[in-house]
UniProtKB/TrEMBL annotation:
It is a multi-pass membrane protein. This is MFS transporter. It comes from the Bacteria. It is found in: Cell membrane. The chain crosses the membrane at residues 21-45, 57-80, 92-113, 191-210, 248-269, 281-302, 311-329, 335-353, 374-397, 403-424. Residues 430-452 are annotated as: Disordered. Signal peptide: none annotated. CDD domains: MFS_ShiA_like. Keywords: Cell membrane, Membrane, Transmembrane, Transmembrane helix, Transport. The keyword Transmembrane helix applies.
Length: 452
């Protein structure tokens, strides 16, 4: 009796779960570092690194430093995407985690404005740039790793672990900041805010131990052994897959919902205009992330059955509506509807788009340029999303309380993702080795593609 041969790109038994676990834990640890900066930028840094005599300008500048990392991410994506498609996913996953841990620890060691003047915010921006470079390669490499290890009929579910790990990191960052924000003002502004950043040392150690033991993906190993790696991934990407790169850029603007929710809404709710406490609003984010941890894999599993496009569209259209309701609830100063709508908007609805994009974007590209395509496309879109916080602070008016303008701005940023999803092809039933095949032309006469 003959035994059917496994698919050409089949992973060894246990590897899909191992890859998903490594992606989850690594992303959680990496994005713990990234998101504690967001909480600090909204609550602490305006007073520590900027001029306290003008609180509105100090808040605006602090939120701008949050966006600086997003501006650095496209450049990081160009470099790390190139290296990842030539040398493999594993090397990038280890490198990005170590860089994030180091840069975050250094933020906790920085002198304040009172100590060194304007040098303080300059050093802060430099460390934030390093965080951005690290984040540029983290999700794309983890997504590629899990997608290429996953069974073809469950790619959505397995790749979603990268994003649920991101939510886990955001939850951890929020939980760490809740007791820190409750410290007396004197202790909070002197040493308390530094503690979450110093904990990144543990992040680097744990992440290194987890990821260095992970095998390279069978799809990348097969690509290397048969056709060879792409010598210039960016050239091939622009020449053959430019339309899908543009779709990913447009789709990635959905991340604006996350940055508005995480940073601007937090700053608005705790401002004098509304007056909610820091701790209570941090709990909104914490509980929303707890719900997201469950919602993300459920939405992703649904996409394995009904397709990526319908699930992504639910998240994009629904986020435009629910974020409007959430900001309205904050404007009333009533905590109960703010809590409920925050959980619905971010924990449930946004998770539909957030949970499915790792497979949706990754399936647009073949193995040879997948990491570059996802990294470059997402990081350009995320750069806009990062500065959405700064734009929101500007259009909210001199008193920072024009929430309707911010809600409309957020809804407008949800339109390009809708267009991108509607124009994309459905790929949830495409075999892994055939992903991106529609855009691939005959490569026989391209000597620049393969290295020895």
């Amino acid at each position: 009796m003959s035994v059917p041969a496994p698919p050409r790109d089949a992973a060894p038994p246990g590897q899909p779960k191992k890859a998903a676990t490594a992606a989850w834990i690594g992303s959680a640890l990496e994005y713990y570092d990234f998101f504690i900066y967001g909480s600090a930028a909204a609550l602490i840094f305006p007073e520590v690194f900027f001029d306290e005599s003008d609180p509105a300008t100090a808040t605006l500048l602090s939120l701008a430093t949050f966006g600086v990392a997003y501006a650095a991410r496209p450049l990081g994506a160009l470099f790390l995407g190139h290296v990842g498609d030539r040398l493999g996913r594993k090397k990038i996953m280890v490198f990005t985690l170590m860089l994030m841990g180091l840069s975050t620890f250094l933020i906790g060691c920085l002198p304040t404005r009172d100590q060194v003047g304007t040098l303080a915010p300059v050093l802060l921006v430099l460390c934030r740039v390093l965080q951005g470079v690290s984040a540029a390669g983290e999700q794309a490499s983890a997504n590629s790793m899990t997608l290429e290890h996953a069974p073809p009929h469950r790619r959505g579910f397995f790749t979603s672990f990268t994003l649920s790990g991101t939510q886990g990191g955001q939850l951890l960052a929020t939980l760490v900041f809740i007791p820190v924000a409750a410290l007396p003002e004197e202790h909070l502004l002197s040493w308390g805010w530094r503690v979450p950043f110093w904990l990144s040392v543990a992040v680097a150690v744990v992440g290194y131990v987890i990821r260095r033991r992970l095998d390279e993906t069978p799809a990348f190993a097969r690509q290397t052994a048969t056709e060879g790696v792409v010598k210039l991934p960016l050239v091939v990407l622009v020449r053959e897959h430019w339309a899908d790169v543009l779709r990913v850029v447009a789709g990635a603007l959905i991340a604006s919902v996350s940055t508005i929710f995480t940073v601007w809404a937090l700053a608005y709710a705790t401002s004098d205009a509304v007056g909610m406490s820091r701790s209570s609003m941090l709990w909104v984010g914490a509980l929303a992330n707890v719900v997201a941890l469950a919602a993300i894999p459920l939405w992703a599993a649904l996409s394995d059955r009904v397709g990526r496009r319908p699930v992504f569209l639910i998240g994009a259209v629904g986020s435009a509506v629910t974020m409007f309701l959430y900001l309205w609830a904050i404007s009333t100063g009533a905590y109960a509807p703010t809590l409920v709508l925050g959980i619905v908007a971010f924990g449930v609805v946004y998770s539909a788009a957030n949970g499915v994009w790792p497979s949706f974007y990754g399936e647009m590209f073949p193995t040879r340029v997948r990491l570059s395509g996802v990294a470059i496309g997402t990081q350009i879109g995320f750069a806009v999303a990062g500065f959405a916080v700064t734009f929101a602070a500007r259009i909210a008016g001199p008193d920072g309380d024009d929430w309707t303008a911010v809600a409309l701005f957020t809804a407008a940023l949800c339109v390009p993702p809708v267009v991108a999803a509607l124009s994309a092809r459905e790929t949830h039933r495409t075999p892994t080795e055939r992903l991106g095949a529609r855009a691939v032309r005959d490569d026989a006469a391209r000597p620049e593609k393969v290295t020895a």
